[in-house]
Amino acid sequence: MGSAKAKNSNSAARKARIEEMQRAERARERRTRILTIGASVVVVAGLIVGGVFVVKSQSDKDDTASDSKTSGHFVTGKDGVKTWKGTLGRTHVAKTVKYPTEPPVGGNHNQVWMNCNGDVYAKALNNMNAVHSLEHGAVWVTYTSKASKADVDALAAKVKKTPYTLMSPDDKQPAPIMLTAWGKQRTVTSASDPNVDKFFAEFVQGKQTPEPGAACTNGLSQ
């Protein structure tokens, strides 16, 4: 009984923390939009007065952005979780990034994230978009064709009720079921493996998150 109460309490606390982060992120986005619009008006007015109008979009910058290489290696802890020791780039790029792991645990990525508000995808994802979701604090569940249907269905049900998670097939990965967060990864034996709950509890909006509270909606979806 005590264990159940503690689990419920921890779950409620985590939910409240995520909701507070989401409110802060929405407020930050509103302030950013207002500042951006104001700055744009001033810049455009100045350019028109000078007789010159230049448009330089963020996408143009991405096309020429240098790709800081991800370097390092995994270190496996006693709990079975692999932690990336080294550098994980965080630059937004338009060109294709080749990651040293599958699924990737971080690195340079596309400026648009995959929706990760409990989203379950039927097809493999573009790693560059999924990595952006990891940057926002999401846990990414992936599986191969070797995973049983029962496990896939059970994991999908868990993901659907958990904010800041997403799930997709990935036949390029080395194990049937894998869990990934920014800089963190582990293999689990099944949906009922207790390490699934442990990984979610620690890394959904966990301390490893580069951008806590950043949006997991209004991104890409299949």
Automatic annotation (TrEMBL):
The lineage of its organism: Bacteria, Bacillati, Actinomycetota, Actinomycetes, Kitasatosporales. Residues 1-24 are annotated as: Disordered. Residues 1-13 have a biased composition (Low complexity). Pfam families: DUF3105. This is DUF3105 domain-containing protein. Keywords: Membrane, Transmembrane, Transmembrane helix. InterPro entries: DUF3105. The chain crosses the membrane at residues 34-55.
